[in-house]
Amino acid sequence: MSEHISAVTDASFEQEVKQASQTQPVLVDFWAEWCGPCRMIAPILDQVAAEHAGKLKVVKLNVDENPQTPAALGIRGIPTLILFKNGAPVATQVGAVHKAQLNAFVAPHLNVA
C-alpha cells in the first residue's frame, strides 16, 4: 500500500467506506495477491489516489482475506472497482483499466472546488 491508499477489511468496511465523509467519494479496489490484472492496476490506482488526494479516498479490500463484503456486494470478478458516494455505490468498473479510463471513471463523482 502507499501513503494515499489504505486497506479495509470486512470489519472496517462499514466505517471506512459507508460512513465515510459526505464530502469525499471512496473508491474501493477489490483485489487478491494472485490476480495479475490487480497487480497491473495497483500503480495506476496509486497515481490517481495521489493526484486526487483530499478529493478522493482510495482503499483496497483483499477478497481472499475478507470474503463477506464482496459476497454482499455481488462481486464476481476481480479487479472490481466500486465508487461509493454518501455511503452508496454509484459506479462500478470491472477489470484492469488504463490511467485515462480510471480518471474518466472517477471524474464525474469528484466535488470540484
Automatic annotation (TrEMBL):
The active site is at C35 (nucleophile), C38 (nucleophile). One of its GO terms (cellular component) is cytosol. The record marks G36, P37 as: Contributes to redox potential value. Keywords: Disulfide bond, Electron transport, Redox-active center, Transport. Residues 1-111 form the Thioredoxin domain. Disulfide bonds join C35-C38. GO terms for molecular function: protein-disulfide reductase activity. GO terms for biological process: cell redox homeostasis. PROSITE patterns: THIOREDOXIN_1 (PS00194), THIOREDOXIN_2 (PS51352). The record marks D29 as: Deprotonates C-terminal active site Cys. Belongs to the thioredoxin family. This is Thioredoxin. The lineage of its organism: Bacteria, Pseudomonadati, Pseudomonadota, Gammaproteobacteria, Nevskiales.
